Amino acid sequence: MATATFPEMIEAFAINKTGGFEVLEKMTMPFPKVQPDHLVVKVEWIGVNFIDTYYRQGLYPYPSFPAVLGKETSGEIVALPTSPEVLSNPDFQRMGYKVGGKVAVDCLGTHSTYISIPWLKAYPITHGVSTRTAAAGLVQGLTALSFFEEAYKVKKGDTILIHTVAGGLGLLMAQLGKHLGATVIGTTSTKEKAELAKAHGADYVVLYKEEDTVKRVLEITNGVGVDAVFDGVGKDTFESNFEMLRRKGTLVSVGNASGAVPPMSPLKLLPKNLKLCRPTMNHYIATPDEAYFYREKLFELISKGVLKINIFKEYPFTQEGAQQAQKDLTGGKTIGKLLIKVD
């Protein structure tokens, strides 16, 4: 692979220190070091996620600075690995990588014009899905699929609760729950968001600013409670989940939108024999077999219209665009996915 075919410099969204929105900059940096087992991808779309804000704030640590933000992108493969061992690996060959092929990427530090990444972090896009849709659906789609399969296996006849249901992940979970035959209860802040959630499979939506969520959920379930809670809010909703779960229920702590959950004693699970899980998608999808299984499942469900990917807004590839995307995401005013188009 001739490195001369690549530009010497790239543009990236990065930080020199942790802090508020203002620390997010658009920087010019050297082209990333290409390892023998890496794919090189020219990025077309960037997906904006809460995890980007956690790293920017310092909730999750970076080992050094400057640090490139982001973990979700899509684009075109411009170079394959140079390692003969990788190229002859049956797992590599099964995935179908090729120069000019389109991939969606889940890898930290990839919000830039070009990226060099381990091959297993890139998912060749199948079933006619576009790079725009793939960037909008990859991380949240894989999260919804793997959590509903492995954190708690959602099945026909279950009743599940999703906090909150009208964001990108919540809408995918509502659709998937309905597809699997579950009764879906969601929480959200406005009537507009409630209508959107219902249009995406939620059977009941609780307006948490106007209603008593615990009381309403227990009414809906005739006092029994739900089989599982998928909670992306964190600190503000954590305690009330224990009141809404049925005996032998499962609490899946998905995220920290309102802040991290404080430490708790395992004895809190005792009164109803509850299970508590705090998973991350990347530990469910870590092997080639897992990557292949979930990749196929995701793009097939998108292509069939079972999972509709809602794109709320596109932002320009500028410092102001990236800062505004994070402000909008954390401000609670978005419905669906935020993307940045890489020029």
UniProtKB/TrEMBL annotation:
UniProt cross-references to Pfam families, sorted A to Z: ADH_N, ADH_zinc_N
Gene Ontology molecular-function annotations: mRNA 3'-UTR AU-rich region binding; NADPH binding; quinone reductase (NADPH) activity
SMART domains xref list: PKS_ER
Keywords: NADP, Oxidoreductase
GO cellular component, one term: cytosol
Limits of the Enoyl reductase (ER) domain: 19-340
InterPro entries the UniProt entry points to: ADH-like_C (IPR013149), ADH-like_N (IPR013154), ER (IPR020843), GroES-like_sf (IPR011032), NAD(P)-bd_dom_sf (IPR036291), QOR-like (IPR047618)
Keyword NADP: yes
Keyword Oxidoreductase part of the UniProt annotation: yes
The protein's name: Probable quinone oxidoreductase
Organism from which the protein derives: Lentinula raphanica
